[in-house]
Amino acid sequence: MTISKALTIAGSDSGGGAGIQADLKTFQELNVYGMSVITAVTAQNTKGVHGVHSMPIQSVRAQLDAIGTDLFPNALKTGMLGSSDIIEAIAERIDFYNMTQLVVDPVMVAKGGQKLLDDNAINTILEKLLPFTKIITPNIPEAEVLTGRSINSLEDQKRAAHLIQSYGAEVVVVKGGHGNSSEVVDVVYDGSQYTLLTGNRYHTMNTHGTGCTFSAAITAQLAKGESIIDAILVAKQFIEAAIRENLHIGSGHGPTNHWAFRETEDARISTIKKQIVKL
Ligand SMILES: Nc1ncnc2c1ncn2[C@@H]1O[C@H](COP(=O)(O)OP(=O)(O)O)[C@@H](O)[C@H]1O
Ligand SMILES: Cc1ncc(COP(=O)(O)OP(=O)(O)O)c(N)n1
C-alpha cells in the first residue's frame, strides 16, 4: 500500500480549530499521513488569541531536518509563520531538501484581529517563499495587502488573483469567505484561465480555521497525486461541509467540523459549482 504523506509548517492553536491542529485533522480525514513543523505556540480559544510564543529558529530548522532526512512529504503547506527569520529558514530548508508541491496560506491576522505575521515579513513571503510555491491561497484582506488594492467585487478578486500570480506562484486562489454576497466565490487563476468555485454562504459565527482547513485539504489531495484544480475543488467541498455542519462549541468564533465531509460525502449535498472563464 502506498502511504501519501503531507507536512504542515504552521502555528499551534490550543483551541484545536485552526493551525497545526486543523491541518492534521484534515490530513487524517483525507487519508493522508500528517506531519508538522511548529513555528509558534498560541494560547487560543474561540474568543481569540491570548498569547503567542514563537519557536526558536534552530528548533524550526531541526524539525524540518528531521522530516527532510527521513519522512519525506509528497506535499506541504505553510500557515502562520510569524517572522521574516522563520520564513527565511523555512525557504532555505525547502530548497535544500527539494520539497515541491508547496501550498502557501499567507496567514496574517486571526479572526479576532490579532496579528500572526510581522508587517515586514510580508515581503519575505513574496521574495523567499513564492519561488517554490505551487498554490497560494490568500483571503480577501490578505490579497488586498499583497496587491495594495482594495477588493470590492468579483472583478477585483480576479484582478488580484492575476496580479499575485505574476509575482511567481503557479496558481492563486483568492478566497471569498470575507465577502457578504449570498454565495461565496473562490477565484482560481493559473496564468491562462480563471476557475470560479461558487457555493452557498452559511451564516454562522463558527468559521474559525476555515483558511487553514481549506489549504490543508488542498495539500492532502496534492499529496495523493491529484491535479491542482481537482485538489482545490475537493478542498472547497471539504470546507463547505465543515462549515455547514459546524460544531457549536465555545462561546466565540467556533471551529468547523473536520469529520463532516466524510459523513456527508455520499449524500452529494455539496452546492459547489465550477465555472471556467477563459481570458
Ligand atoms: N460563511 C461561509 N460559507 C461558505 N463558505 C465559506 C464561508 N466562509 C468561508 N468559506 C470558505 O472557506 C474557505 C476559507 O475562506 P476565507 O474565510 O475567506 O479564508 P480565511 O479563513 O483565510 O479568512 C474558502 O473556500 C471560502 O469559500
Ligand atoms: C495558529 C493559527 N494559525 C492560523 C490562524 C488563522 O487561521 P484561519 O484559517 O485564517 O482562520 P481564522 O483566524 O480566520 O479563524 C489562527 N487563528 N491560528
Automatic annotation (TrEMBL):
Pathway the protein acts in: Cofactor biosynthesis; thiamine diphosphate biosynthesis; 4-amino-2-methyl-5-diphosphomethylpyrimidine from 5-amino-1-(5-phospho-D-ribosyl)imidazole: step 3/3; Cofactor biosynthesis; thiamine diphosphate biosynthesis; 4-amino-2-methyl-5-diphosphomethylpyrimidine from 5-amino-1-(5-phospho-D-ribosyl)imidazole: step 2/3
GO annotations of cellular component type: cytosol
Pyridoxamine kinase/Phosphomethylpyrimidine kinase domain sequence ranges: 13-257
Entry EC number(s): 2.7.1.49, 2.7.4.7
GO molecular function, one term: hydroxymethylpyrimidine kinase activity
InterPro entries linked: HMP/HMP-P_kinase_dom, PM/HMP-P_kinase-1, Ribokinase-like
Segments forming a coiled coil: none
Reactions this protein catalyses: 4-amino-2-methyl-5-(phosphooxymethyl)pyrimidine + ATP = 4-amino-2-methyl-5-(diphosphooxymethyl)pyrimidine + ADP; 4-amino-5-hydroxymethyl-2-methylpyrimidine + ATP = 4-amino-2-methyl-5-(phosphooxymethyl)pyrimidine + ADP + H(+)
UniProt family annotation: Belongs to the ThiD family.
UniProt protein name: Hydroxymethylpyrimidine/phosphomethylpyrimidine kinase
